[in-house]
Specification:
alpha+beta; BirA Bifunctional Protein, domain 2; Rossmann fold; nine-stranded mixed β-sheet; elongated
Length: 426
Amino acid sequence: MKIENLCVNRLYGDVAGATTRGHKIAIKGGYVYQTFQGGYTLTPLGWSVVRKIENIIRDEMNAIDGQEVLLPVVCTADLWKETGRYDSMDNIAKFKSRSGTDYVICPTHEEVITDYARSVLKSYRQMPFMLYQIQTKFRDELRVRAGLIRTREFIMKDAYSFHETQEDLEKYYKRCFDAYYRLFKRCGLKNFVDVLASSGDMGGKFTHEFQLITDMGEDTLYICDCGFRANKEVVDEESAVCPKCGKKLNKVRGIEIGQVFQLGKFYADSMHLTYTDASGEEKTPIMGCYGIGVTRVMAAIIEESADDNGPVWNMETAPFAVEVIGLADKENKTFELAEKIYDDLKKAGIEVLLDNRDSRAGEKFADADLIAAPIRLIVSQKNLANNQIEVKYRVNNFDTSSLPNAIDVKDYLKTIQDLISKLSQQ
């Protein structure tokens, strides 16, 4: 991609209406465009990051035997009336068709997945199994906040598992729990923890949230040195004493990036989902549920890792692995070499951005900070005099002191491939 063809607006200066650093940078960098309050268009840059987060999630869900499905965004109210949540949840968007049928824009999909399971689950031999999707959700929130942190429309990964026994559910719950730690680390998040939490509208008695600890978070968390961690909803805030060791709890703020639930039999019982066990008896399966706010994860990465100049992505989430910047010279040799490097990297299957605009170096570097390719190659007249290309890195939590600051013009392709490989290990 050439930067002049990249269909985004990058902004400079302050951003009106943005309340957090991450929200400001997401708009300044051209990752999101607000279509309505609580609804954002993901630009080519933002969608690239989200797709990469989705692919990390798919890798980890498939590794624990998940089967991907795609459920409808809209469903009839009848399914929600079976569980009683049609009238009990206050953030459901409801509408009538022209024929008078009541519909729901799904804020979550427990009812829809249980209805599907009724059509396929017959025997105990089919369990355990887990179905997951990456799907758009809509919640009629009274307030929105911090860009993609709290919106009305968002992308979510929701997964649902089905089991014969509580013991089997707990084993799978642990597998999914561990997968969440792996995938959040792969996304580049660092300061996140699991905390005990309330199940809220989802039902079930046992649940954990995954929270990114940050001062701008909207959730209150209580953490103890002994290892106990919980959301405020399951802690006595008046005493704020650890129920495990009796010490005073530490209060911090967090952004919820995922949650796992042991749902039990509520949905299966309500919707009459059954299977035949080994003795031929009709039984009700036990369910688990596992959610991740995909677009919120992108926002959380920016909130945690960005500096004042722009976001910092790792090699798995960056829109481009490499940006090539040509700085103009009188004979255009820099632009010619920058174009050749760009073409060679594209042919090698590397995601690369080229900036050969006739613009000031400062403008190009400011844009490069916002786009935030982990590797930046600068082709200038000064470096070409030494047959070299300057290399800059935009990474977090990775020691680049052993990596080259310049590479030889004759051997750049292999060197760049090696650098990508090393940075992919962060």
